TrEMBL record:
Compositionally biased tracts (Low complexity): 92-106
Transmembrane segments: 6-26
Protein name, entry field: Transposase DDE domain-containing protein
InterPro entries: Tnp_DDE_dom
Domain of life: Bacteria
Disordered as annotated region, ranges: 85-106
Keywords: Membrane, Transmembrane, Transmembrane helix
Organism: Streptomyces haneummycinicus
Domain Transposase DDE, chain residue ranges per copy: 1-80
Pfam families documented for this protein: DDE_Tnp_1_2 (PF13586)
Signal peptide interval: none
Amino acid sequence: MWADSGYTGMLVGWCAMALNLMLTVICRSDDHTGFVVLPRRWCVERTFAWLTRSRRLARDYERLPASSEAVIPWSMTMVMTRRLGRHRRRTGPAPARAPIPAQRAA
């Protein structure tokens, strides 16, 4: 699992002990100034963008955090079903069509 540099500290050890996950903290080096693309950070940002497209996750409407956590699987299910349901462009030759019969003159 990847995390931003704001999640350093006890979280790394807690993830290893409680969740049996290896948390990798992606840090920005001090050599760079301005905007720097960090490795694997785009995966997290992209997922957050997908989640905030849901109306209920765009704002903090819920009273309890558990309610928001329950909406996240629904939102990701909607993202994946839309992605699976897309029509894909065929790369092979076009299918053969029957010729249109000539119309009779009346």
